[in-house]
Amino acid sequence: EISREEKLFVKKIMLKGVNSLNQDRIKDIILPFQKKWLEKKDIQQIIESVKQAYKEKGYSEESVKISYQIIKNKYLEINVDEPKSIK
Question: Which of 6, 8, 10, 72 has the fewest Cβ atoms surrounding its Cβ within 10 A?
Answer without folding.
Answer: 72
